[in-house]
Structure formats: C-alpha cells, structure tokens
Amino acid sequence: MKVQCVICHAHGTLEDDSSLAKKLRNRPIHTYMCPECYERIRANTEKRKQNENFRLFRDHKKKVDF
C-alpha cells in the first residue's frame, strides 16, 4: 500500500497485511506519519511534558445526580 506522510509529504509503502495498512483503509480519518516525524513529535512532546507549564486539557464530565 502506498502512503504519504501528512507532515513532510514523504512517500512510502506499507505491507498490505499490516495492521496499520488495515487501519488506514478502514478508517480514513486516521493519518500516516513517517517514522522520522513520529519520533520527532514524540521527543518534542516529552520535552514539553518536562516543562512546569505543561497542561493536558481533557473534557470535564458533568456529574449527574439522580
């Protein structure tokens, strides 16, 4: 399967039997990132997590009383 990285637009191939190829075929909302971009984003995120100003925003669930 031919794929293209959404960040650097590098072209690559995946084996048709791989789980990532199946995920990309069946759920078009999922995107492909090349290993270099994935590693760079992971490293930058880890650096930001070490910063004291890092905040992870999550949805606040409202408590329902019956």
From TrEMBL:
Pfam families: DUF2197 (PF09963)
Highest taxon above the source species: Bacteria
Protein name: DUF2197 domain-containing protein
Organism the protein comes from: Lederbergia galactosidilytica
